[in-house]
Amino acid sequence: MPDRLTSLDASFLYLEESTTSMHVGSVMLFDPPKQGFDYDRLLHIVEHRIGAIPRFRQKVVDVPGRIANPVWVDDENFDMSYHVRRAGLPRPGSDEQLQDFVARVQPRKLDRTRPLWEVYLVEGLAEGRFAIVTKTHHALIDGVNALDIAHVIVDSVEGDDDLLPAAPWEPGRSPSPAELVTGALVDAVRRPTQVVDLVRGGIDDVVNVGLRAAESAGHLLGAVARTAARPAPESPLNVEIGTARRWVMVATDLDDYREVRSRLARGAYAEDVSINDVVLATIAGGFRTWLLGRGEAVSTKSVVRAMVPVSIYGDDPAGMYANQVMACVVNLPVGEPGASMRLHQIAFSMRQQMEGGQAVGATSLANLAGFAPPTLHALGARLGSAMSRRLYNVMVTNVPGPQSPLWAGDAQMVSTFPVTPLARGQALSIGVTSYNGGVYFGLNADREAMPDLGDLAGAIVESLDELKSGRES
User: Fold this and answer.
1) Cβ within 8 Å of residue 350, ≥6 positions away
2) CATH class of the domain whose range is 207-469
3) Are 136 and 152 within 8 A, CB to CB?
4) pTM of the full predicted structure?
């Protein structure tokens, strides 16, 4: 019988709503190689690399009556040209036009009757650049059987001469409805504890899904339970959202964060102030400026509670991949006027959670090679979607990437921006990826709730400058 979705994976299908698409994306920008890069080249790369991951040619099929979780089956009508698409901007396309394109494309749901991923080649950017935009459903990405599609497009080796000829692929026969029911009954006899836990559509509060996710990893500790008793503070970030989005990208330099860390990380716990802490302090300062610019009431005790899936890595993330995603809940001290004090408060809070064992382990990844950040953003977003949205105001995923160039064929990737989805009732999500000397933010927001998303993007840049200069607001 085909593979059955876990209850957590199935929940991302059942909980998908018109306003909350359960997929994650990435936007990768490339310099053009001398010989050019076109749609056929991208098609060639994808075609030759997805063979190692069968999930990319499989679709989800429900069991009649939903008596068990759905199963993965080969798509007998798999059409590569449907999944790998071509789009263009009016030349010379600007970053703003690319952002508008991403904001239109990303919220659209993936076709459930086909494998749950899409790739767009976006041509026409200024200076001959092009972008590759990806979408991959949460149900597909578990970090073991399948990764984000962006993971297989880029490589650390320039060129694609090393690609082996694509092996012939013959889809397996799809099971009949009767076979699906029989398989479900057999599973119920062989593994009763894995079949009892069904997640059906129409669930209003999915905190139990988050608890099951943590239990399955063996790390259900006290943080979630304690936080559940203290709902997130009221915030303009928590409103009813619609289907339309705004998406903005912010590019910064990794050296700036290292400079801030080396200058401000002093004292007994200096070594425990991480690059991730500096990123969060930068975001906290951006929120402070944005809230004040909106005329919101900001007192010395004001906070924005962030759910932060933390990828674990060494002191310097250069060239290293995380092997675990941990979820922390941290109050960003937007009421604190001092930039350096905001950093130390955040570092202390994060250290308490990590040292005290209060982080909830979400997923451990073994032998993860290639371009890991898109997959880790997806795993973090999966965890955020599974937790109750009453527990936090905003999700921030910060994933370290390689500090050496990556390539799609002969085209060098110059920057990469995550697109993390919105949860119901949350107007903003922030994804951050470091890559080859840069730190890249992707701000995804509800279009109506955040018409001033560009102001927040600018405030983040100003906040980093404030940390660098030592100024206090």
Assistant:
1) 274, 276, 277, 280, 308, 310, 328, 330
2) alpha beta
3) no
4) 0.84
